[in-house]
Queue: 2 jobs
Job 1
Amino acid sequence: MTQLIADAVSQAWTNFLESVVLYLPRVLATLSIVIAGWLIAALLRVFTRWTLRWLRFDALSERIGLAATLRGADLSPASVLAGSVVFWLVFLGFLLSGIDVLGLTALQGLVAGFGQFVPRLLVALAILAIGFVVANFAWRATLLAAVNARMSSPRLLSNAVRFLILILAVAMALEQIAVAQTVVLTAFAIAFGAVMIGLAIAFGIGGGAIARRFLERQFPERSDSDTDRVSHL
Amino acid sequence: MARATLLTDDLVRRLIAVGQVDVVVGLPTMNNAETIAGALQAVHEGLSQHFARARSVVIAADGGSRDGTPDIIGALPSGARDRHGGLRTRHQIVAAYRGVPGRAGAIRLIFTAADLLQARAVAVFDPDTDPLTPASIGGLLKPAGPDSFDLVAPVRARHPLERLLVTQLIRPLVRAAYGRQLDEPLLTEFACSGRFAAHCLAEDVWDRSPMREGIELWLAATALSGSFKACQTCVETAAAAPSQRPRPGLQEVFTPLVGSLFAALDAHAGAWQRDTAPEPVPVIGVEVPPPADPPAGAPSGLGGSFAQDVRDLRPVLESILAPETFAAVAAIAEAAGAEGPSYPDEPWVATVYDFVAGYHAGAIDRAHIVKALMPLYVGRVASFVTGHAASPADEVARDLETLAQQFERSKPYLIERWYRAS
């Protein structure tokens, strides 16, 4: 009986040690992949930041209004942020490759899934970036046009324009990365439709006089405004 | 290259038939049926009186008039051009220019034709702006030529409270930057040498915005920044019946003119940032005293929205103005009452210079920078007009001179901001 237990324990230890001997190289390989990945990702982060600074990306982000938004959200400057995104994408790629080497059944397919996800994520980020630039440009153009045309509530109008464009961009980006596609699409359609219907009802019922004044201002019977009654030229 | 693409075959044929000329007079036209006959008559009389022996051609460059302006020009009786006593045959051509309607297309066509005809001098008059007189045509054209002046700009007697965009912004900025004092930098009418016209034709500005929209301002800046001789000539202002044409609003004139000036400053930075002593631009003729009666006073509440405008535009202004300038503007806005702000010379000059530097650096979209200056300009105009509502003309003129000197004194600030913003 004792012998049987001793054999069983011995066999278990033998199996365990064989497993360790078999598994250890994989663990070491995973560790080496993760460490190498971290180094490569860190180097790429430095390279990305350096390149973007050389290309004066921070000045560009200042110009398009991205820098102000990042400051408002207590985030790093655009070049630092872009470097971090590159770091985490590359490091995550290496990390998942390392995990794949371990051969864990439960985690198999993660790398393939990540490989498919990254291009979609990049497209989504590009959509967000473009949407942000367009939204800021439209916001500023609307604000200036409304102020110079002496329209009331220029900030409300310009912020509404920016908000709608940003919402559209966010919905498109979420759809691209396939995050709760149906929910996002439905929520966007409901929200957008509700805003439009709300505006139409408010403008139609409550804003008859405003609409008339608005149309009169848009199609005036050629009369000089206050600013035009002095001799500018 | 310009001749091949700008002039139609038919126009080239007609110009070749004209042959070499001494003087080209150009009239940019666009629905000028009301005034074109009188303007043409004045041009022909002026040429006969002052250039009787010169070979000349009058070119009406039309931008696609739909009121029959070209027909009116073409229907002038054949003897009408000679009855003023000219000794040489004077030609008259109506030509439609291609591209976007506007003064740039018309002036480009006139310059191209003058270049082809090897004209010594070119003059461009606006049939609408001020009534033309034979004396004003002679006064402008006579000093222009290869051996005398490359650009001749008019000096008209105006009340100092008129033309506020010129007096508050364009003229003092041009004077401070280029070191040359030009009374009419907008050049609604001017004469130039054939050499200057040929030089300008080679510039890549005719199809580019915003230079295209404010081409005369660009031409003036080019003359002042280059090795060209400029002068001014006193031109009488004839009484005119009020025009039936709607006057362009501030928005329509502010963006193209200020945008064109900022673009010119950007392009000529190397020239105007040189440390050269200011040079006067000679004035020919006797200056006529300005009218004593001021124009109608400022409408009440002209600058009433200044405070709100500054609050609304805060994020835009903060991205253009230096922090201390923005603080000064915000303080002016806070203190502004219903009658508008009190916007003194010093912060106004700093504001303009910050906008010029911001335009150069491209702090935000350049068209947006120009548009963001307009509400501040309206505030400054309200401040100046309200403050001088009861002032005699000479006192207003003195304060305009003080403003111009403030622009000159602050030029080092502009250069510092220019390089800091780059």
Job 2
Amino acid sequence: MSGVIATQPNLRVRLGGLDLAYPTLMGSGCYGSGDEYAPFIDLAGIGAVVLKSVTRAPRLGNPTPRLVQTPGGMLNAIGLQNPGIDHYLAHDVPKFASRPCGVIGSVAGFSLDDYAYTTEKLGACDEIDAIELNISCPNVASEGETFSCDPRLTHKVVAAARKATAKTLIVKLSPNVTDIAAIAREAEAAGADALAVINTVRGMAIDVHAWKPRLGNVTGGLSGPAIRPIAVLAVYEVARAVAIPIVGQGGIETLSDALEFILAGATAVSIGTGNFTDPRAPIRIAEGLRSYLAERGLASLADIIGKANAGFKNATEFSGDEG
Amino acid sequence: MPTLESRPAIYTTRIIDRREPAPGIVILGLHAPALAADTRPGHFVMAIPPAGVQAAVALGIYEARAERVSLMLVDAGPRTRALAALAPGDSLELLAPLGNGFFLDDLPDHVGIVAGGVGLASVLLAAEDIVRRGKRATLYYGARTARALVDRDLFAAAGCAVECATDDGTFGHHGYVTDLLRIADAPTLLLACGPSPMLRSVSRVAAERGLRAQLSLEETFACGVGACWGCVVPLDRASAQAPKFPEAGADESRTYVHARICKEGPVFWAHELRW
């Protein structure tokens, strides 16, 4: 590039068929159904929102307490409270049409049939740009996390969802496994367009006065900066195992946090618990990434993805002007 | 549903005064004219803590007049400690105003306000509003000990009668604040904010004596804006505040829904809670 005016570094990224103006997502479960943060931030400044997971049938969710603050983060056990896909399609989805950013629906379930059914219904909506398959919720009875903890089941559920929609399919992986790379390979082989790495880490806190667990669900999912090194490693390992793009997530609050994930091999980052500290975090991170690239004379995010990962094999496509 | 329309936003405020009416209790006065104008009794804020501290903190809006809003907090942990350490001249960012606030449109002649500990922060504006509407207000105020009873004079100045209880008997009634409600001519409407055991007690007394009670619930919030569904409370499904979506299908007999304290509340009618 040799223009007289310095070109702004390009932050556009692609996740499968999903073209994002910014590589920053709002994590599922931390952004509700899309409206809740609209008074506080300009959604045009983020890449996409990942909506709260929806299931085939309505769910009441877990008993309270559902949240516990812990050092460097928090435990949650919400239990996928949601109105069910039918009500969601009728009442929530129409509101997403006006979003000035990408809209990624999130599907959770308890059987292959559930995932296929809900993915087909949600994927058929024009308002939904892509589907995130939540096969890794640690907070629902029995089957919640089973799909993401067994490579063969991961393959089956991703294949079922793949058949159910032509939209970009992002599969969210659990860190609560022995070999996340093996799971990632199965998700890729079954047709995933991208992987979200990671969901929460299983955890627990106990009230030492009452002699009982502090969460109504007994166990929960740990999020926040406490899990960031776990998540960075997971992205690093997955990026060496698959060629599809990765959405890195787990305790991201700042530019530096986001850069760790990108340098480990993530094409985009998702901010979840960080929104609860400051909902402007995704916008600040995007601005920070642009400055970071500009200061180094780099033209695009592609120039830094996976640069701390010698075995990185991601073949992310980039749209727009590339350096 | 008596909704109080407000326009929440991120406010960048400046601290203009700070006082510590009792050890560990801090009141921060903020320059925030637009927020003061948009605040209704019972609203709360999510205070974005100074850099390096995680998670915003939910605080009731204590005072709101002209260009000044104040927040009361208890220094009880790393997050509130960072806020308590702020001094005049520092800036503080808030997501505000949040929540539904108290329902004050249809008041009886005498309204009781029950506050425990830092729950006091959420009821001063309500007391002022009740008096402004020409009704009688009595604050029933409980704390561990006399020193932790703060700002009684502020309520008195607002035209509100004040009755106190302390756990250790160092001031007022020796016992629970709810004991003060067991009187023949108790107010027929109670507004309450404080720890859960106190609110449950208010709820019981109200039920026993046929009083109506609005409870402002306290809970750990993650988002404070209705996004995360972490702060729910079981609420009668017939309540006007019940979230409008169907329920987990199998259990037709269940009569409650999970409502978000931060969004549908934090103020609920005691008789509609199923907690």
